[in-house]
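Appendix C. Worked example: ABC transporter ATP-binding protein
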Amino acid sequence: MQSYRLFLRLAARVRINWKLTSVAYLCTLLSMTLTLLQPFIFLQLIDKVWVGKQSDYFYPLLALSIGCALFASILDIIRDSLFRYLDIRTTLDLRNVVLDHLRKIPLAEIEKNGPGKFAPLLAGDTATMSNFVNRIIVEMFIQMVTMLVAIIMIFYMNWRLGLVVVVSIPLLLYIPNIFRNQLFRISQYIRSNNEQVGTLMYECIQGSREIRAFGLEAWERDRNEKLYKGLITKSTKETIYRATSAQMSTMVISAIIVLLYGFGSRQILNGTLTIGMLVAAITYFNNALRPIQTVNKYYGDIKYSEVAMERVENFLRIPTESAIKEKQDGMYSQKNAGLKQVDVISHDLHVIYEGNHILKGINLVVKSGQKVAIVGASGSGKTTLLKTLMGFLPITSGELLVFDRPLTEWSRSLLMKHVGMMFQESFIFAGTIYENIALGNLASTEEEVNDAAQRAGLKSLLDTLPEGLHTRIDNQGFQLSGGQRQRLAIARLILKKPWFLILDEPTSALDRTTETQVLNELNEIMKGRTTLISSHRLETIMSADVIYVMDQGKIIDSGTHATLIADCEIYKKLVDEKHHQTKLEVFTH
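Step 2, the predicted output written as structure tokens:
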């Protein structure tokens, strides 16, 4: 019943291919039927051929036995192939369910928890759940039907032996439940610990530079030891519980088999049972035992599946972002967008996230074709404002118009088509340079991708690579320099051809020389486009049409560089600090 409820919960999450599933289960039933015929065939061989000396039955019964075994094997191959396909398909469907929700929850939730929190959901938990649907449930179905038929056959041959079997089965079914609660708690602990291990392994690789630079190898080993200490203890306990449960079942089974042999032998001597019937009854009893052994074997896996399902369901309960729609509908669909003017207007905009008032009364106007800069000290709210404009954070109160429409009335797909964003560090996907650039416009041709790469300043890099655009790069593009990664991101923007650019400190991680080169390339794509930029680069800020100064989540002043230098103390202080930093950089170089 518990497994059935879990199956229903899973079935509600994925699309089950009932046609293939039905064929697979039909093969299973036919194979079981043929397998369960074998003890009855052996009964006839023993009683009629070996004991009764009726040799005419030998070859027909032998041929029937071989035929049943052969046909059952063919059916098993078909069944296993179908369930393997369904397993992969179910895993993919479950991952798509998780991935779709991951794309809808607030980015802040992902950034807060990091990859170690969500990666196991996509990799481990979905595979565990699929394994439950397409392997564990199948095996339990096979064994339960086998047990039912086996008991019926034993009763058919001798009702007294049937009673012995029926009385013993509840005891064998009870044994796995003895450690049920302990196994569930341990499964939860191990799953949570594995999540921490995943995060730790990620840090071990990503933090290699700092670990070596600060001589933290001993600290790293100690941290690993502490984390694995609890895992070793709990895993050992889990093994003990499982082994104890299995051995208890084995001892009870051995005792029942001895009892059946003794009781059956007595009936053979009394003439109420044949040798063939006793052998067949013992064989059927072994068939009836397999389900119980299967329950013991898979009990821990079922608990893991429950934990995985619980984790996935908890994840799916995370509220999705409400800042923007996910589907196109209504009057602002792609068909009748008809966008001409590019404006961003916010009025008394407030954002409260997880109890923190991060944006306070923001009033902002970005007119079509303008270059608008946002400046402020670290933590002043610049990046938060840009994320809000992209719909990554929900608006608590106030008004935000993007392209003359309330942000909440836009579909994400349509808005993202017309807005291009460049981050402080652009993410590079595993694949070729061509594939990474083409993400800007998946419908682009190779000629267009190559043109975008040339305009983004990647020519010198591509000339050094034997395979040029089709050179493979690893996840996050570690073979590329910071400047090359940002140029690749610029090439994406060139392909995308957005009407509105949002640039979030696009050169903050670059050295001064590379920064100048990248900014020159950025200036090319900013021409004729509305641009909102957060930057520490003075030349970029000074050339903006309007500059907004932020402090502690508020816009405290706005104007041109000249007016702000004269009237805004915070802006003047930021400029002075940047002049001083520039002089130091020139001096140190």
